[in-house]
Every structure is written in C-alpha cells, then in structure tokens.
C-alpha cells in the first residue's frame, strides 16, 4: 500500500502527460511553456515557501547534504571510469555521465510530499539546493571536456557561472533558508497566495515530463542506457545508503536522502547535451529507460 499510494499517482500523471501529447491535446509549445512556468516560477516559489516556513534544524541538513553529495561524486567518478573501460566515444560521454547521477527534481519532490510531508520537503529542498550547483559543475565540466567544439576558457567559465548564479531552484532554496534562519513568518494572505501557486506545481511538472518522454534512440542506445540506469538506480542508492548510515543519519532525513538516490535521471540532461554538442538521442533514451526503471528503485526504497 505504501508503494501504491506514493508511486502510483506519480506514474499516472506521467502517463497522462504522454497520452495528452499522443492525442494532440497538448503539443511542444504547451509543454515548453509549462516547463518554463514550473522551472522559473512555481517550483522556486514552492521551495521558498516550504523551506522558509519551517523551523531551522540543528545541523542535520549539513550531514545529509555532505553524505548525499559525496555519494554523487563517487558515482560521477565511476561514470568516468566506465567511459574509459567501455570505450564510450566523446560524442556520447557527456550524456552518459550525466545520466548516471543527475536526478529528476520534480518526481523527487512529488514522492517526498506524498510520503514524508512538510518535514521531508524541507530536508529534500535543502539537499537539492546544495546538490544542484555541484552537479551542474560536474555535468558542464564533463560535457565541455568531451565536446568536439572547443570554446575559450572565458566562455566556458561564463556559461558555468550563468548556470549556477541564475538557477531559479538554487535561488528559491537559498532564499527559503535565509528566511527560515531569521525565523520570519508569512502573513496569512501571502501564505494563501503561495498555497494556491504551488498547488499547480507538481501536476503541471509531471504532465510536462510525461509529454516530453520519447522512445527515440532507445533501440540504438539500449546498452549504454541500461549501464547508466544501473549506476543511477542501483549503485548510487547502495553507496548513498552506506554513507547516510556512516554519517549516523536516521528518520526523515535518511528517508529523504534515500528517495533522492533512487530518482530517475533528470530530463535536463537532454537540454544540456543539445547545448554542449553531446548525443541527444542517447540522452533521450537514458531519460526514458531510467524513468521506467525508477518504479522499481523507488518501490524498493519505500519498502525498505
């Protein structure tokens, strides 16, 4: 029942998004607009509101972030070894590496909201606020290193800084943490405004993700996609669990961390691969397969 109640609604909305696109009720323009609304407005507002309205913890978030980011870095290094061991060409290397450790923020928040409630949202929000900048550095650095179109050092640094400084999810998390630290509170009308704004966030995000999923390139990239999914959905949760226990993290923070590790790869890897001249078909295949297989990894984590 835990798995059914927590995961079934998420995948139903993903399926709904796919069906709406298939029958022409939504289209690429709608999906791009919906994605922009969620990414730039609704999701940052939700992170700010949820984190800002909760009480500060006593250092648990720091340990959770340290253990989780260390696990991501370990899997990132493993992805680089796999690129060398399996002779993955440079054109696919950046997309493959991203698929091994990047996570789908929207699906993660939806699962956390369903299973852990308000306290879980705070821990997960702070975790992704710290993880996103580091993951962006790893992803952009690897894509630039393997790109056939070399840019100047200044161009690469500017691209990376823009990806970090102007990331709305990071800004929402940071603003929420600052607001919470000052122990401020939202006026009732402001609280109600955020409540209305954020009520649309997760359904719209999941429908947008479902509509963007495609089977394009899956047959040609099935081996690399399975390899990336194995690192993302099996190796990362195992390493992450060991590190969380070694940091003596328990309770809601432990559960939030495990959900973080078991998430499918981010749909953002397609966009970043396109911008930095990597294999978009491989990225698309990895996203599709990882999303389907994450039903198993998330179910296992919730049952454990």
Description:
The protein is mainly alpha-helical and 304 residues long. It has 14 helices and no strands. It is globular and about 55 Å long.
- Give the low-confidence spans: none
**Count of alpha/pi helices:** 14
Q: What is the ordering of alpha helices and beta strands?
A: HHHHHHHHHHHHHH
How would you sum up the global shape? globular
Q: Classify the secondary structure makeup into a structural class.
A: mainly alpha
Radius of gyration: 19 Å
How widely separated are the two ends? 13 Å
How is this fold's topology laid out?
Blueprint: H1 2-22, H2 28-52, H3 60-85, H4 90-101, H5 105-115, H6 117-146, H7 153-165, H8 168-181, H9 188-199, H10 201-212, H11 222-246, H12 251-261, H13 268-275, H14 280-303
Features:
304 residues; mainly alpha; globular
Brief rundown of the structure:
This protein has 304 residues and is mainly alpha-helical. It has helices at 2-22, 28-52, 60-85, 90-101, 105-115, 117-146, 153-165, 168-181, 188-199, 201-212, 222-246, 251-261, 268-275, 280-303.
């Amino acid at each position: 029942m835990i798995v059914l109640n927590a995961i079934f609604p998420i995948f139903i909305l993903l399926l709904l998004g796919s069906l709406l696109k298939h029958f022409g009720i939504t289209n690429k323009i709608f999906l791009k607009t919906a994605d922009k609304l969620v990414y730039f407005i609704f999701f940052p507002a939700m992170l700010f509101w949820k984190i800002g309205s909760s009480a500060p913890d006593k250092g648990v978030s720091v340990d959770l972030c340290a253990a989780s980011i260390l696990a991501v870095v370990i899997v990132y290094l493993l992805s680089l070894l796999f690129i060398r061991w399996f002779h993955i060409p440079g054109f696919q290397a950046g997309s493959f590496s991203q698929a091994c450790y990047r996570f789908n923020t929207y699906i993660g928040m939806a699962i956390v909201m369903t299973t852990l409630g308000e306290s879980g949202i705070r821990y997960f929000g702070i975790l992704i606020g710290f993880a996103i900048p580091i993951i962006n550095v790893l992803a952009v650095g690897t894509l630039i290193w393997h790109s056939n179109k070399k840019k100047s050092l200044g161009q690469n640094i500017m691209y990376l800084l823009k990806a970090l400084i102007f990331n709305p999810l990071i800004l929402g998390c940071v603003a929420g943490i600052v607001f919470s630290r000052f122990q401020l509170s939202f006026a009732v009308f402001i609280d109600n405004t955020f409540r209305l704004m954020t009520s649309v966030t997760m359904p719209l995000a999941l429908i947008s993700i479902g509509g963007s999923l495609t089977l394009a390139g899956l047959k040609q990239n099935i081996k690399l996609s399975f390899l990336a999914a194995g690192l993302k959905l099996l190796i990362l949760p195992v390493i992450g669990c060991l590190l969380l226990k070694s940091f003596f993290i328990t309770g809601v923070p432990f559960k939030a961390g495990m959900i973080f590790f078991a998430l499918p790869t981010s749909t953002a890897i397609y966009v970043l691969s396109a911008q930095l001249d990597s294999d978009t078909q491989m990225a698309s295949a990895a996203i599709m397969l990882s999303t389907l297989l994450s039903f198993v990894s998330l179910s296992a984590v919730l049952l454990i």
